[in-house]
Design brief:
heterodimer, A: alpha/beta, three-stranded antiparallel beta sheet, 8 strands, about 25% strand, globular, B: mainly alpha
């Protein structure tokens, strides 16, 4: 797979709360590629992902993101009052896709009728990832996707990421746990 | 955009918040005659103003659930990642909120006016005033709700921020009850229009600022 880059950060700097988190960061993510952001807590990994997703504006440098993105952070962004199936369907409608794809991939099909508010931490994480998988976006931004996942969930996540990359998608992730992305380009923040 | 508006209406209906505002409004309308006494002319004269205060307080009720839950759960961020502008999201919320707040309040004004022993023409003027004024109240609720989203003890702060800003609506809305011309109505509509026009931009900017 070749083609235009999915994400280009050019000498990006990020400042939050009056503090410079990182400066002069450049990164190019090609189709099928993955980048793993590492660094100590509070160094700005989540901010980098939010910057890539367009939720934060860089104080210097440019962010080019020509493809749709999907973001998974520590918030599921699902309506607590709805059942899991309906809550995921809301986002699938926004993306004009099928929510069943993500639910199958993360093994959530049996929780379809369960209200979001009674889901466990791990199930919430799976639902967050299911939303990303269903989104059809070519660039995935995964902020600590392994948090709260059990071994089976991790396997499903690794399989989904491998499929996504095979079909020309890209992944930018920040994680303290091994995700099976051994060939990912390292992005060290310090 | 339409999906977002429908989502607002559905949640206002299913969570009971729309009903809560109406019940609150009717409760004030019921209490007021108890406080004033069964003096029909006095009730009819002051009823319009009392109902406007009730409408104002009813508008304050949903202020904490309009923006904050969506911010805290990450839904606003997810909408932004998908390329929706924050202003567009705010506009959808404004329309959805007014539809679940304005018309039910106008319906509730009918029994409320009866409790106040208001004559038919006064009810008509009240309804006309509510039609023009509730969009402005909805816009204020949205703006202040977005500004205080993410702050601690935001409920009390929201009241302090919103009530002074609602004074023009209160003045011209209650002013509708006096006289038979439409001067107060025109001013009320003008104030309301201004609030509706700026609300998506102010609420959108507040949502953006809360992200930083």
């Amino acid at each position: 797979m070749s083609g235009a880059a999915l994400l280009e950060l050019d000498q990006v700097a990020c400042r939050r709360g009056g503090r410079m988190l990182f400066e002069d960061l450049s990164l190019i993510l090609e189709p099928g590629g993955a980048a793993l952001v590492t660094g100590p807590n509070g160094i700005g990994k989540s901010s980098l992902l939010r910057l890539a997703g367009g939720l934060l504006a860089p104080v210097a440098g440019t962010v080019r993101r020509p493809v749709p993105v999907a973001l998974a952070d520590d918030r599921a962004a699902l309506d607590e009052r709805l059942t899991l199936g309906r809550a995921l369907e809301f986002w699938a409608r926004q993306d004009s896709t099928d929510p069943a794809v993500g639910m199958q991939a993360m093994g959530l099909a049996h929780l379809d009728a369960v209200p979001v508010r009674i889901l466990s931490t791990g199930q919430r994480k799976r639902a967050t990832l299911a939303r990303v998988i269903s989104s059809g976006a070519r660039l995935w931004l995964l902020d600590e996707p392994a948090n709260g996942l059990d071994a089976e969930g991790l396997e499903r996540l690794a399989a989904a990421m491998a499929r996504h990359r095979k079909s020309g998608g890209g992944i930018l992730t920040a994680s303290h746990q091994a995700l099976g992305l051994d060939d990912a380009q390292p992005v060290k923040l310090r | 955009m339409i999906a977002l508006t429908l989502r607002e209406i559905r949640f206002a209906a299913s969570s009971g918040h729309a009903l809560l505002s109406v019940i609150f409004f009717l409760l004030v309308a019921t209490l007021f005659p108890f406080a004033i006494g069964p003096d029909t002319p006095l009730l009819a004269r002051t009823g319009g103003g009392a109902l406007w205060i009730a409408a104002l307080l009813a508008a304050l009720l949903p202020i904490e659930r309009l923006v904050e839950p969506d911010r805290a759960s990450g839904i606003l961020d997810q909408l932004a990642v998908r390329g929706n502008s924050d202003e567009g999201v705010a506009l959808a919320k404004l329309i959805g909120h007014w539809l679940s707040f304005g018309p039910p309040l106008m319906l509730a004004a009918i029994p409320a006016a009866a409790l106040m022993k208001m004559p038919a023409y006064a009810l008509l003027r009240l309804e006309l005033g509510l039609l023009a004024g509730t969009p402005g109240l909805a816009a204020l609720t949205l703006m202040v709700g977005a500004i205080v989203a993410g702050l601690r003890s935001n409920g009390a702060l929201a009241g302090l921020l919103m009530l002074p800003l609602a004074v023009p609506i209160l003045i011209f809305g209650a002013g509708m009850g006096e006289g038979r011309d439409l001067a107060a109505f025109k001013l009320l509509a003008a104030v309301s229009l201004l609030l509706v026009a700026v609300a998506p931009f102010i609420a959108g900017a507040a949502i953006k600022a809360a992200r930083d």
